[in-house]
Amino acid sequence: MKVIDVKNVRKYYGGVRGVDGLTFSVEKGEIYGLLGPNGAGKTTTIKILVKIIKDYDGKVNVLGRDLKEWDEGYYNKIGVSFEFPALYSKLTVLENLEFFASFYKRHLEPREVLKLVGLNESNMLVLKLSKGMGRKLDLARALLPDPDILFLDEPLEGLDPESARRIKDLLLEMRDNGKTIFLTTHNMYVADELCDRVAFIVEGKIRLVGNPKELKVRMGKRAVRIEYLDEGKVKIAEFPLENLGKNREFLDILRKEIMRIETVEPSLEEIFLKVTGRRLI
């Protein structure tokens, strides 16, 4: 079931292109990543989807309705967290969440949401929070309405490894519970670990959409790489998969001490470069 359906969307800022001919769809219960370098159109796309930008051409349907027909009730259905948190610096962590919770017809308990994101400093003023704490609080704010769709812009930026792992696990659990997550990032590792599908966007247009693992198989070499010890030295050899079982050199190496054997696959960044001719950063 499509919960987001975008067809031929165009947005220019004067003579500067935001997106042009943007077309894609997102299914219920998937994590969909928009992957591209700065200036590719990621932020314009997410601002259109959350109704910050309203003067665009084309068709956008969200949760079965034309986006332009949604009233303020739309914000009871979605959660939004941008790269730069929208918080009140002179209020405490808990006061911020209680204030934002008052906007919704129904919402999760603020203290419970803080537990979900691993933020324990409920009485600390926001102005004293680290960047990572601020990101977690902004995500907690986005989770308050228990949204059907969660829109995230660079969701793990500024988080330490432990916090990033916690948030990844939370997002995967939400997906498994039927929530839809739309995220934008230039971080290939985030996209690779989290996303069911990724879309490569460059110059306001989507160039390729697919599952990360399937893209690696489809666009990678059909080969294996083997790392082994030979007379006390570590050596590496690569062999095509075709007729591998009859390859005498490969079979001879298997008699030696094998340290590692793996298929050869490109990274998402390498695929992005191959498809678009651009680097992610």
TrEMBL record:
Top-level taxonomic group: Archaea
InterPro entries in UniProt: AAA+_ATPase, ABC_transporter-like_ATP-bd, ABC_transporter_ATP-binding, P-loop_NTPase
Predominant localisation class: membrane
PROSITE patterns attached to this UniProt entry: ABC_TRANSPORTER_2 (PS50893)
Gene Ontology cellular component annotations, sorted alphabetically: plasma membrane
Keywords per UniProt: ATP-binding, Cell membrane, Membrane, Nucleotide-binding, Translocase, Transport
Localization annotation: Cell membrane
A Pfam family that the UniProt record links to this protein: ABC_tran
SUPFAM superfamilies found in the cross-reference section: P-loop containing nucleoside triphosphate hydrolases
Sequence ranges assigned to domain ABC transporter in this UniProt record: 4-228
Molecular function in Gene Ontology: ATP binding; ATP hydrolysis activity
CDD domains the record matches: ABC_DR_subfamily_A
Keyword Cell membrane carried by entry: yes
Record-given protein name: ATP-binding protein
Natural source organism: Pyrococcus kukulkanii
Lineage start: Archaea, Methanobacteriati, Methanobacteriota, Thermococci, Thermococcales
